[in-house]
Amino acid sequence: MKPPPFSYHDPATLSQAVELLATLDNAKPLAGGQSLMPMLNMRFVLPDHVVDLNGIAELSGVRITESRVEIGAMTRQREVEFSAEIAQACPILIEALHHVGHRQTRNRGTIGGSICHLDPAAELPTLACALDAVIDVIGPNGARQIAFADFPVGYMTPSIELNEIVTRVSFPLWPREAGHSFQEFARRHGDFAIVSAAAMLLVDPAGRISRATLALGGVAATPLRMHEVEAALIGQMATPETFRAAAELCRKVEAVGDVYVSASYRQHLAVVMSKRALAQSFSRCGAMQKH
Amino acid sequence: MIAPVDTRIVGHSVERLEDRALLMGQARFVDDIAFPGMLHIAFVRSPHAHALINSIDKSAALDMPGVHAVLTMDDIAPLLADRLLKVALPSPAYRQELHRPVLADKEVVHVGEAIAAVIAESRYVAEDAAALVFVDFDTLPVANDCRDAMAPDAPRAHHGAPHNIAAEFDMGYGDCVSAFAGAAHVLKETYWQHRGVAQSMECRGVVANLDPMSDVLTLWSSTQTPHAGKRVLCGLLGRDEDKMRVITPDVGGGFGPKLVFYPEEAIVALAAQMLQAPVKWIEDRREHFVATTQERDQYWDMEIAVDAQGKILGLRGLLIHDHGAYTARGVNIAYGSAAAITLPYVVPNYFLDIKLVATNKVSVTPIRGAGQPQAVFVMERLLDRVARELKIDRAEVRRRNLVPGAAMPYKTPLKTRGGMQVVLDSGDYPATQKAALDAAGWEDFKIRQNDARAQGRYIGIGVANYVEGTGRGPFEPVSVRVAENGRIHVASGAAAMGQSTKTMLAQVVAEQLGCDMSNIVVVAGDTGAIELGMGGFNSRQAVMAGSSAHAAALKIRKKILLVASHMLNVGEQALEIEGRVVRLKGGGAQVELAEIAKAVAGLPGYYIPGNVEPGLQATEHVIINDMTYANGTCAVEVEVDVETGLVTVARVVFAHDCGKMLHPKIVEGQIIGGIAHGLGNALFEWMAYDENAQPVSNTLAEYLLITATEMPPPVEFVHLESPSPLNELGIKGVGESGVIPMTAAVASAIEDALAPFNVNITKVPLSPPDIIALIDAATRKGA
Amino acid sequence: MDSAVDTRTISLTVNGKAYSKAVSVRMTLADFLRHELRLTGTHVGCEHGVCGACTILFDGMSARSCLMLAVQANGHELTTVEGLANGDEMHPLQQALSEHHGLQCGFCTPGMLTTLVELLRDNPSPSADDVRIAISGNLCRCTGYEGIISATLDAAEKMRAGGVK
ipTM of this predicted complex? Predict the structure, then answer.
């Protein structure tokens, strides 16, 4: 289990990296390496060139504006996990990160790497789906922004060109009084989710749900946004029965099955995780909103 | 319960000899060995579960810079005494010979079977070149599921074989037909258990080097059986015994599969000989999944007959055992299962029909527990059924059937694989069960359970008894030698793979020879250090090697005191060995061990003091043919999330009796490790294959080992010590105890937790989807 | 040796010692430490980032050395298991692991130690659950983790009392 032969490039700037990816054939950008390196060791990928992005300082860093958290693609997951500012502004991001692998992998793994790898069971793409994250990419034809809704084009396949690099992931912020929850069912701590559910809720002073989002990870080939559930919630009183009934809609999702976990079990878990995520989100809605 | 310890080292949790080097990063595992000019092997392995090999084209690989050789059977056959590894233990049960070839050349019968060895300047280049060895296959139908493979028209695991039965035999005694005919109750059930892959954290590995000066070929192998390995290699390669040496360096866990001799060991040895260069092969984790032996599926079709009070009248059935593609060890797992099932209980009539079925999967050989966990699972599940049907408490049913303490030693009608009668030598099984139940609060659990259910929580408690045959004989030699600098050297064939064998041997020897652990140097598993040896398996090291070490140390002790009495001119009784000196009890005159060793080494023209035989060395191989039987009872509490199927193990209580404990902390460590393994077998570990016998679990992200976050709070122990009468030290083995009752206890606990749904658990492992399916099925049935 | 790819010379510090060495660009950091620097205390258990045996401290942060290329360590500071003790005097964690029988075969131990050194640095008073989570990415087949967890809690207490960093 040793990496195949390749040429190694370690650009110091984004423009050098763009240039390299534009000119080299069969090149693979290397971010935190927590997914690509195992695939190299197992020779599941055989690049002629590896372009290491770890030396590009401009790709790292966190910025919080009025409306969003902007995270440089090469920002380590650990940096986000331990950011007090993000904990304030976007606590669901921290909650999701606690499910991402282990300490050792979060120390190296990056936000952009996980988003690009687009494992349907991974937490960050699921959260990005729930929050309508925006992904900034750059390539030989310049920079562009992709809404997460348009980002996955298939199983582990993002809508970016082979010569493009993700530079930034932005998560829109919800009002402070919103409640959030990231629920995950995995076999062991730190494993990829069998099913995860990311939810946020806003409730009006009368106790009616005014805004809701729900995304499911692990269920299908890509993260799923549950618009039908959201629509069913809006305007309803936030009660356990409301959440139960809305979550029940998830039983109809088209789920994947494999030798370990059947599609019907994933559908079942989609209901359970959604119900729990909605209930917990509501329990965390701002106090003044709840009565 | 535990006798006061009147020893100073034995029986105490002294610091382990092994720890310091391991903690400081200074241990030496096989992959830590390096020689200048060392070459590296990568194997070309079969991607197919079953195929004929038409041709092998190695030209492109050989053309690659850095590649030194590509070996196939055609290259090595002229140098081998046999193309096959004939290492199977003897048995009249075989129905066909299924020996592994050193390299496959005509047919491959499981994914991962080695076809060619690429030898290159580095492992990286060797892997590059291995990808360029082109093998032309014709794929064949596969024998996948061992039950299906028994059908007369099933695809054969081996092309042209008359059938897929690798071996068959039966075991039993009494008259089951009459017992069942007259029984108040007869219950039937079919059970399936899966075990999986050993997953020692260190995979296998081999380094070989031919010393041009001495012509000695030395093989360092991460093996549990170096002496057996040497014997095989001498035969295969035609080397004289004194020109072949096998050494086990530090070994990063064994758990069974490393007791088997493997093709890779032969190839690395042969390559070093052929290329006149040091050669290394380190198994990677992907290879471990397909090339290291496993313990997989057993299907039991069982019936139990009981009287109106739940007393067992008879037990009978059929065991179908997945044997894998080859016979890499023997019929011993199935034999061990069949021989273990009745052990804790009085079973007056017993009959089991046993079929070992060849499949196109990697060979099956023992993993920690070696068939016994499966047997315990079946027996304990059946007793839970009896309890449920007869409405008797589960523990009470067991109590009524356990072999009573007063019956010890209890002669069962069973025989070991070597034909010796199985005699349960000591222990009080009902007292052990009671101790576990008391510690677990069995009587009061119902109250807690009802309280929890009122809150919508499903908790359950389970119990399982086991009796483990330990200390497989007939012997394990140990030599003890006091060197002329006073250091005490201990050598044994008892290979160590993490179970603290060196500490154990040093403790036994130190107790007699000065009680200074730091003065003792232990070599465990080096054919150059001791001539005979069996190795590490079957929870035998402390029993077998410990007994030999004790005998050898006593012999040397006697000699030391005799010589010292002459040197100091006092009676032997007045002397004691303390640290590195022999001295008058209470102080005064003394002589160093070093001086005694020098004195008995002799001087030309002078008497040896005391006229003893020269040298301070003794080699003992205490022969103990009968196995000593350890026992225990495990109680487990679980909580089941009935929405997700998640099972949380909340508590493990473990009452057991392994005779005298040499080192209580090591005993507990062995048991906890076994418990973790058993919890994995109950809830996590599954070696999945698809319908073409292609392995689906190929990484540690797919094959789930239990981690720290899934482990229960600290295990609660009750230690009982009934000394074994079979050895001087009164000990019984413990290395596999922890794993044996776990699947049974967990299944019992889950069934109890889910009693409101009335589920019936008949298989392990149980994943969350399985739990939900059980609940769904029971709900549908109830509705 | 690796005839198939380019080499680069890298400079790095390991356990306080500076090294400068030419290395094949595809060599993993784990292999480099073990076979080029002969620091064989770091163990390779799975080479796909699951078992944790190869964990080292990379600029003070735990990382899986099988999931890094050696060339990526250029200019960085690494600590391996060989660098934890103070000369012959074991680190409190090493001492505690021995006392609590937190190791058997010892193969996973280096990765456990490096992971736990980081934990105790960042969280000097961990709960048992904190320890469990910290080592949930480190597999051990021998111990059932129990001795490792109790050793860590014990070492933490001793380090707090002794002011050890």
Answer: 0.98
